[in-house]
Amino acid sequence: MDAFFDRFARIPILQKILAMVLICFLVAIAFYFMSYSPQKDEIERINNNIAQLEKNLEEKKQMVGDLAQYKRDVEKLNQDLQRALKLLPNKAEIPSLLQKISSLAQKAGLEIMSFQPTPEIPQDFYAKVPVQLKIRGTFSEVTNFFDAVSKLSRIVNISGIGMKLDLTGGKDAANKKLLTTQCTATTFRFIPQAADAAASEPPKPQGK
Questions:
Q1: Do 34 and 104 lie in a common domain?
Q2: Kind and range of the H or E element at 25?
Q3: Alpha-carbon distance 95 to 123, whole Å?
Q4: Domain range spanning residue 105?
Q5: CA torsion angle for 57, 63, 64, 67 (degrees, to 10)?
Q6: What angle do CA 113, 163, 157 make, to 5 degrees?
Q7: Residues 6 or more apart from 17 whose CB is under 8 A from it?
Q8: What's 125's domain CATH number?
Q9: Each residue's pLDDT tens digit, 134-183
Q10: SS3 state of residue 164
Q11: pLDDT tens digit string along 106-121?
């Protein structure tokens, strides 16, 4: 042991410094490959996993947000549908509605020359219920009747209006300027079976 220290003492100081530097360098390299490098790889792997998890979390949040918006849209559509259905009579209410239209014509002072319901025209979840009308009265009486119909709680559209001066009543009709008016009064009837079938259909996937 004394011989070793004697030989070490005779080594020049510069060589001793270089030897220490070399030893430290070798220790550092050994630490890097044996400890730091595997830890660095593990840290990178964990960071990548965290980034992927954060991405998945954001995607899940987006899906939840889209689902919540979808539910709100469906609820709003249901509310709109319920409001619309209040304007559409069911089959049992059609006769009373037609009677109401006839009554409004009489209250306006019109003579009902013809009141002819025609076959229904099915649509998606409702059916059109047209009625061919032929009425006689003054222009003011006709417009008052149309105005009263427009204020009904149920939807009734007046279309196909044709007017001509009525000469069949002689001078009295001519003096009063009576008009013979033909038109179509169309109301709409709710078809519950069609609406139920549409509601039972699964929603179509939305395209991106």
A1: no
A2: helix 13-31
A3: 20
A4: 91-194
A5: 180
A6: 80
A7: none
A8: 3.30.70.60
A9: 999 999 999 999 999 999 888 889 999 999 988 776 555 556 788 999 99
A10: strand
A11: 999 999 999 999 998 9
Element (H, E) at 130: strand 126-137
- What is the spatial distance between Cα 66 and Cα 60, in angstroms, rounded to a whole number? 10
Give the count of domains, the chain. 2
Let me know whether 98 and 81 are in one domain: no
Average confidence score pLDDT of the chain:
77
Strand partners, 122: 127
Helix axes 139-150, 94-107, angle to 10 degrees: 150
Nearest partner of 197 among 124, 98, 109, judged by Cα: 124
| Overall residue count recorded for the chain in this entry | 208
Q: Does position 187 have pLDDT exceeding 70, yes or no?
A: yes
Q: Is this structure's pTM higher than 0.85?
A: no
Task: Give yes or no: residues 67 and 95 share one domain.
Answer: no
What is the pairing mode between strands 179-190 and 126-137? Answer: antiparallel
CA distance 186 to 112: 17
More confident residue, 125 or 140: 140
